[in-house]
Specification:
The longest helix has 34 residues. The N and C termini lie far apart (131 Å). The chain has 416 residues and is an alpha+beta fold. The N terminus is likely disordered. Helix 5 runs antiparallel to helix 9 and helix 6 packs antiparallel against helix 10. A five-stranded mixed beta sheet has the order 2-9-8-4-6, with no helix packed on it. The chain folds into two domains: 103 residues, Immunoglobulin-like, CATH 2.60.40; 249 residues, no CATH class.
Length: 416
Amino acid sequence: MLKLKTRNKKKKNIKFLSFEFRVLDLFRVSDLGFRVFGRFVTFCFFILIASLNAWAAPEISLPAGREYDLGNLEEGELYQRAFTIANSGDKPLEVKVVRVGCGCTTILYPKKKLEIAAGGSIEARFSFNTEGMEGDETKYIYIESNDPETPLLKLKLTTQVQRKQSAAIKRFLSWGLLTVAGAGLIDGINPCAFTVLVFFISFLNFVGYRKRELLVLGIVFILAVFLTYILLGLGLFKFIQSLESFTLLSKIIYLGTASLAVILGIYSLYDWYIYRKTGNPEDVKLRLPDFIKRKIHKTIQGASRNKKKTLLELAGAVFLSGFIVSLLESVCTGQTYIPTIAYVFRDPGLRMHALGYLVLYNLMFILPLVIILIAGLAGVGSEAFSKLIRRHLGVVKLLTAALFFFLGILLFIAKG
């Protein structure tokens, strides 16, 4: 009985040991698989960590919004304002505040690229110059960053600018009318413009046109001159208007024009002195170059030589020639026109008045041409006109010099 129990116990021990060895053998056989599996798990872990790190990124935001209302401001003042730039992301944000297309805005801080920690923020400061502004104004500040979603953020600035009714503006309104009218009239009696129409009327008489045809073609020619100078003035107006956003450049242009006016005034005085001494109009400096004068004469002759054309065809040809001639003679007449336009449009608050002044200037400019046309129809010859020009050329040069000095001083005062 005892032997049987001992035998059975030995059999159980043998079975257990056999099972244990089989399990150990299984683990030995599968050891390679465990190693492969372990490496796979480690690889997946590192991929997960890398992915989480890749998802973390800086994120730029403006807590107050992307539109900044500066409120009601006064023209001609320098204001300082600030706004907050925040980093809503999980990584450091690199930012650089820049301004584009507006010389009225200057960034005070930050002046160079800086870093904002995750969850942090900075206060950016800028100055805003309202010189030359009026009414509703919209400007922009641009912010560069390393935010992958928003590398360039635009902050919109809006404001309502009220103009000051200064004594200078009131003076301009009171005597600006007389100044512009006088400038247009002096430019109109400028020999550059005067002699062109004299040649035109004389040539029509030479070809043999009747008075009715002379009247129609003369009016068409003068109308072409008037419209051409209006268009030139509007073009200059648009150019000056486009400079308003660039305060420094605008000031440089105005001061350059003022300097030009003073230089032309000196040349006009020189012409007066030389003409008084020699009596020869060819000795003056400020006149149409000979090659442009020949081109003008050729243009007029080509437009009106053919008498076989109908009056309507002649009028069209004369209108075109008047346009071309006006552009050519603007080399000379523009010497007065440009400083006057700069003077008229120097204050954006007077734009509506300035447009009226532009029309007034050109009406006064063509007034001497209308008088010449009427005198030509009455039988006054080109010799009489030539004598009139020679007799009063010195006075015209003195008046022109005074006008140049006056406009130059006004522009220096306005933008100095």
